[in-house]
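Q: Give me the 3D complex with magnesium ion.
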Amino acid sequence: MKKTVSILGSTGSIGTQSLEVCEKHGLGVTALAAHSSADMLEQQTRKFKPEYVCIYNEEKYADLKSRLADMNVKVLSGMEGLCEIAALPQTDIVLNSVVGMVGLLPTLTAIKAGKDLALANKETLVAGGELVMKSAAEKGIKIYPVDSEHSAIFQCMQGNKREQVSRVIITASGGPFFGKSYDELRSVTKAQALHHPNWSMGNKITIDSATLMNKGLEFIEAKWLFDLTPDMIDIVVHRQSVVHSAVEYNDYSVIAQLGVPDMKIPIQYALLYPDRLECPTKRLSLTDYGTLTFEKPDYETFKCLSAAIEAIKRGGAYPCLVNSANEEAVRAFLADEIPFIQIGEIVSSVLEKFPQTEISSYEDVMRADTAARSYVREIISA
Ligand code: MG
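A: Here is the predicted complex, encoded as structure tokens.
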């Protein structure tokens, strides 16, 4: 039996590549949800014929509904619609590639409904890691990582004993500004920040790659997904993005996963696990690369990275606070309200500004989220 998939965030970069994988392997598409691209969602609906579609932006609901009037599909909207789609009984696996904190509630809803998850929404684990992993364990559902680094770690753990892992090595491309000094970062432009050397991704994650916040978020994500302590996680800058991450075992054998930098490989592994079938991408030619390089990250210059690591070491609400502050700061940078360098300043200031608080419910996460966002808005408007 072919699996059936519901995709949250279907018009984004991960979403469209996931649909390519579904098409290639004939997976059933039960539901599609998008933020606000009614036009693209309509095209996807005509092609993949899901039973349900959802548009998060309620203002676009009427438009989508009339576009799809001739189709036999249930049209939903808002967070309620996202959560309904996340819990459909006829879906085998929910792929969550929503951008940002918005993805947390649908993730929790899918888990509660007993759905396996292909998780590309890293903020889910960063802000709500403890809640998510606890409820996933209670429900006995599986979380398949879609992030390339975490997929690599997951792949390197197959066939080995988890308790014999001594360390994981997360690789980082370094982004467009690797090697620049703090002073040089003062003058970088939005166009430069949006130009990633290896990966083609959405705007939020591309900026996070330029600040290295993305690697900080992935550090936190790895901690939760693989039940690691922060001292078991190393970050290594690897400019070519060919080695997607590695796992070291007690015998100091290190197993790495390699491939061309194309998200379709980790997406497909998450959707078809444990099968490995032909992927719609290129094969890796190591001799075309010739040289692979590995360097230390610059924690002083890229303040977001050190702030995220410090946040998960402290625990409690700090990972959520730095994440929400970052989301707000990136939004402001993309709206030309703050310079690039201020993103790191804002994110690290959260560690001084907020006292330690615990997270034991979804409401706690949302309270921390609101507090961090209004703190950032105050700084920006001052
Ligand atoms: Mg990644």
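A quick observation: Residues 93 and 116 are 5 Å apart (CA to CA).
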